[in-house]
Amino acid sequence: MCRNKLRKCDPRPILHLLIYLLFIYATLLVIHTIFGRLFIGNHAVKIKRSATLPLRFNSQGTFKILQVADMHFANGVMSRCRDVLPFEFHYCTDLNTSDFFRRIVREERPDFIAFTAIESKIPWAAILGNHDQESTMTREELMTYLSAMDYSVSQVNPVTYGYSDGEKKVREIDGFGNYNIEVSGAIGSELANMSILNLYFLDSGDRSTVPGIRGYGWIRETQQIWLRQISEMIKDKQRAGPAPDTHRPPSLAFFHIPIPEVRQLWFTKFVGQFQEGVACPTYNSGVLNTLINMGDVKAVFLGHDHTNDFCGELNGIWFCYGGGFGYHGYGKAGWHRRVRVILAELERGERNWKGVHRIKTWKRLDDGSLSKIDELVLWTNPLST
After folding, report:
1. Is 321 exposed, middle or buried (0-12, 13-18, 19+ CB in 10 A)?
2. Half-sphere exposure of 290 (CA within 13 A, CB side)
3. What is the mean pLDDT of residues 308-315?
4. How much is the pLDDT for 6?
5. Which residues contact 136 (CB under 8 A, 6 or more apart)?
């Protein structure tokens, strides 16, 4: 080190320090790679394996999402299945849910999983349902835990700001697990560093906490304000990007409890099975109007009602159930558990990939052949050539 400005500095101590720090970092990296955890005293400290970010479309110009709805995983082999045929019951446990999950990941090879997917090393995100806090953890603790798990891109809540009496202050958002994820264009394209598909995740709550209103919870006004802010921010980023004149990037939304308007889909030409009443809040908080006015959301993906797996359209926005996935949750004997797949496809330009051309969906059944059913186009870019 050099303390006298008149003397020539000796760089060797600094160089030695840098080499030492590099050695420590390399050692920790090797330990993490081999063992996945460090030990401090007698306690194992796990290091999160992070997903590769940003999420982006692959070289084939696609981005595939697996929606795992209502897994209801309990205690492994000790948890018996519900609503299966008599000959299936004696051997059916939570392990059937795990096996279905592994087989569907191998079959579909998704780029992203909406719920949970640590073993597959695929980026994943989770939203809370109405049962998740019924054990020893609060909803906030659960989302904190989920966000710290390997390959998770889940977030507890965003930091957002508002103004009160002319002063900028942090604005609280209801619920836990409200966040958005941006998916970038394919590597090598002019949109490689731009968000061209956006995913909104919302906490739809548990039971109503408002006196005089019974039933399920709902997406609150603070969450909808945040949604509108994010939507406008994405719009502003597009205007400043390399392709400001292209169609606004589409968005998809994920939350658990359906909104009241989903009941109206019984009277439409829905695709799939509508087998039980829509278990929604008795209070309508205006989510549908918010989504319509935002203009970017093309489809919403729901859970909660396990034997509904239909898609129906409301004011230009598709609402799709995932269908019950887990064997410990209720279902219907003889009706296979299922999973929803969502595929976004890019438009092919003269030299490279452009923006999103089409979004479609289908379901896979947990039968002998993972049957593919009810394929449906949800949105096509009107400006695609």
Report:
1. buried
2. 21
3. 97
4. 46
5. none
Q: Is 88 helix (H, G, I), strand (E, B) or coil?
A: helix
217 and 209 Cβ atoms separated by less than 8 Å = yes
Q: Which tokens in the block code for residue 350?
A: 């003269």
d(CA 229, CA 195): 16
- The residue whose two tokens read 């982006």 is 56
Segment 98-126, tens digit of pLDDT = 899 999 999 999 999 998 575 678 999 99
Closest CA to 305 of 271, 268, 332, 267: 332
Query: If you ran DSSP here, which 8-state letter would residue 93 be given?
Result: B
Q: Of 207, 210, 134, 144, which Cα lies nearest the Cα of 179?
A: 144
In this prediction, residue 47 carries a pLDDT of 79
**Which are the contacts of 343, defined by CB distance < 8 A and separation ≥ 6?**
62, 63, 64, 65, 359, 360, 361
Give helix then strand counts, H and E, for the chain.
6, 17
Per-residue pLDDT, 129? 82
CA 51 to CA 60: how far, in whole Å?
Answer: 20
> Nearest 5°: CA angle at 75, between 72 and 77?
110
Full-model pTM: 0.85
Alpha-carbon span 257 to 3, nearest angstrom: 65
Q: How far apart are CA 97 and CA 336, in angstroms?
A: 12
